Amino acid sequence: MTDLAPKYDPNEVEKGRYQEWLDEDLFKPSGDKKAHPYSIVIPPPNVTGKLHLGHAWDTAIQDTLIRFKRMQGYDTLYLPGMDHAGIATQAKVEAKLRKQGKDRHQMGREAFVKQVWEWKDEYANIIKGQWAKMGLSLDYSRERFTLDKGLSKAVKKVFVQLYNEGLIYRGEYIINWDPELQTALSDIEVIHKDDKGAFYHIKYPFADGSGYVEIATTRPETMFGDTAVAVAPGDERYKDIVGKELILPLVGRHIPIIEDQHVDPEFGTGLVKITPAHDPNDFQVGNRHNLERINVMNDNGTMNEEAGKYAGMDRFEARKALVEDLEKEDYLIKVEPIVHSVGHSERSGVQVEPRLSKQWFVKMRPLAEQVLKNQKTDGKVNFVPERFEQTLNHWMEDVHDWVISRQLWWGHRIPAWYNKKTGETYVGEEAPKDIENWQQDPDVLDTWFSSALWPFSTLGWPDTDSPDFKRYFPTNTLVTGYDIIFFWVSRMIFQGLHFTQKRPFNDVVLHGLMRDEQGRKMSKSLGNGVDPMDVVDKYGADALRWFLLNGTAPGQDTRYDPKKLAAAWNFINKIWNASRFVIMNLPADAKPAHMPDVSKFDLADSWIFDRLNHTVGEVTRLFDEYKFGEAGRELYNFIWNDFCDWYIEISKVALNGDDEELKTRKQENLIWILDQILRLMHPIMPFVTEKLWLSMPHEGKSIMIAKYPEVHAEFENKQADSDMAFLIEIIKAVRNIRMEVNAPMSSQIDIMIQLDDEANKHILDENADYVENFLHPKKLEVSSNIEAPKLAKTAVIPGAQVFVPLTELVNVDEELAKMEKEEKRLEAEVERAKKKLSNQGFVAHAPEAVVNKEKEKQADYESQLAGVRDRIKELKESN
């Protein structure tokens, strides 16, 4: 046993503890083949910077589950790793290089990638330091990175297999293009938000000189790529002009008027310009009518030679200049300001440009159907909360082909080569043998392509004989935010099913978003983010973990609240002080906690062990159901209320008494309950529970591998629970009355308890020591036949009424004078209110709410006056 400071100091408690766990190899799987395996692979954070509170929330839940299952005897694996985060990391490094006056194109691919690896190493070390401060029991011997050799092997195998199965293809399609990062984006990497824009109404003249048609567009700069104007089939307004030709303003190129089902005749003028290289719908129209595809922009968002004199101008500068020229040449009819939803790059924030591009795609329909089919079986992925399964299903039902190529240098290079002479394509896990005749595709794969394989690639797949893959796959639980279902969860599910024929995890536990105190999403632009490491420095990792697990229900957002962090620290300090009290009251030769002798329990013992049993059963059930907030409430109520406020206080009677045998039994009970509390709390609060457990008599080198508490049938005692509840209610009632009449515990008072059932008298008789200690009665009368005194404070509790006569506690003459003074004051208030409400001018002209407020005041004063008059009557009768 070691001395404990009088106050909980998280910095002292946590200092050096993590390294001790690492030195003892406590984070590795047990290796017990008879034990059930339980595995979680950490959602790999991006090596773009420090972790935020959302990461802390993720990992606090994961580590709690792992520690819980480890203590229950499972063979647990908590596998760490990080994601290379292609676009995000490359953007960070390029920004850093720009500040140094460097450009990746000037540096070359090899030198640039070397710079990114240096960035990765720096931030990976920062992240691992944060994991340590959070106390995550990760098996670092199995740490993975999405660009390591094993995962690269898995990525290549998946790409080649999907290509050979016809599920990966290369083709020209309209994709989302980020002009700043100069790469393709998938649909879910585009954020739509409202922007100010305009409808530009432009004249497109007939080639035969017979007039013009009016075309409205929000992107006039794309008109250089127009190859047709379309109307809806059967639109009576335009049946006579279908097939005629128009002259493209300022360009002079002739384009036809066509019919196509894409056009909505009710929208705008019912005439739509068709730009197949710059709009996804126009691309489909162009395919149906064999229209030319004219790309009018460069990769960086500037106009190309197709734009004539506007070539080289930024797309938005070109728009402004073009509109001015259209007006000068009398082609502009009007400009109609609007606010419309526009796609922006999730990474760079710039407006996305829909653009024709040759890219690699995954054909999603067959993979999505496999997921939808599996979700109807017993082998489906279980979502917590269940409602998010619909989110997955809706996305799978409406899925589009996934563009997986990225025009980046940081990432998995696409395993495709093009013959320099013939142009043929070769796809394979290894490069062609005559490599000098081939050129590898310069693009890399979307980051999500490799992270979609994370649950099985980290365990040794594609080697299906890998011991870890055979032992720990499928993983048991994925914990992540609900905002990543589209990006990651869905992709892991379809890749897992396709390549392993199994779901990648049994359960997906989804938490919400961490918001600031005002309910706003945390963001750099608002400057309202909170560094979890700052929180740990101030309150401790255990307090942060407690806050995160008890903040909300699964799937719900939560607000960061420093007051709740302070409350969490205060709760830990309560546990600390209770532990310190128990340990200080143990004999020097105290033995580790052992099962108590139930036959020697008194009422308080039977009650606390029944409450402990209930808490163990409920917390275990709630952890298994991922209801951490409810589990936290059970733990808090038992520890703070039942154990600290009641059982420890009750035990002091024996600990301060002369009965050595009784004192020993109380000490043994206290250390057993404390031991069980620390084990219950350890998954959530690993640092402080380890410190306290090692400071008391114990067996084993760490609480981390101690057995998790179990329900013991011999502790069940509902009668004791009921009897103790009765005794507690009596004690609370007398305490409240003492406070009301300002009678301190040091003073003795007369107490009368009228029982509803005489059978309950034994509870007070058999616990006379507790009654004496907590009620401190001068005279105690207990019966079912008690005549209530005329002047007394009364409390009604289940099964009894408690009376405390006031004759000796109150100076009747002084109290009577005080009450008569209060009576006069209230009479005046009632009279004032009556006069105000009888004033017809006030009632007629004052707002209804003001009049109603005055009526409420009158009713309240009248009620108070009636109570004072009753009190005066009681006092006079007692005198």
Automatic annotation (TrEMBL):
Biological processes, Gene Ontology terms: valyl-tRNA aminoacylation
Residue ranges occupied by any Aminoacyl-tRNA synthetase class Ia domain in the UniProt entry: 17-559
Major localization listed first in the record, in broad terms: cytoplasm
Motif segment ('HIGH' region): 45-55
InterPro entries: aa-tRNA-synth_I_CS (IPR001412), aa-tRNA-synth_Ia (IPR002300), Anticodon_Ia_Val (IPR033705), M/V/L/I-tRNA-synth_anticd-bd (IPR013155), Rossmann-like_a/b/a_fold (IPR014729), tRNA-bd_arm (IPR010978), tRNAsynth_Ia_anticodon-bd (IPR009080), Val-tRNA_synth_C_sf (IPR037118)
Role of this protein: Catalyzes the attachment of valine to tRNA(Val). As ValRS can inadvertently accommodate and process structurally similar amino acids such as threonine, to avoid such errors, it has a 'posttransfer' editing activity that hydrolyzes mischarged Thr-tRNA(Val) in a tRNA-dependent manner.
Gene Ontology MF terms in the entry: aminoacyl-tRNA deacylase activity; ATP binding; valine-tRNA ligase activity
PROSITE patterns registered for this protein in UniProt: AA_TRNA_LIGASE_I
Motif ('KMSKS' region): 521-525
Record-annotated Valyl-tRNA synthetase tRNA-binding arm domain positions: 811-876
Native source species: Lactobacillus hominis DSM 23910 = CRBIP 24.179
Domain Methionyl/Valyl/Leucyl/Isoleucyl-tRNA synthetase anticodon-binding stretches: 605-752
Protein name: Valine--tRNA ligase
Coiled coil, from the record: 809-878
Lineage: Bacteria, Bacillati, Bacillota, Bacilli, Lactobacillales
Annotated family: Belongs to the class-I aminoacyl-tRNA synthetase family. ValS type 1 subfamily.
Cell cycle found in the keyword field: no
Swiss-Prot/TrEMBL domain comment: The C-terminal coiled-coil domain is crucial for aminoacylation activity.
Highest taxon, organism lineage: Bacteria
Subcellular location: Cytoplasm
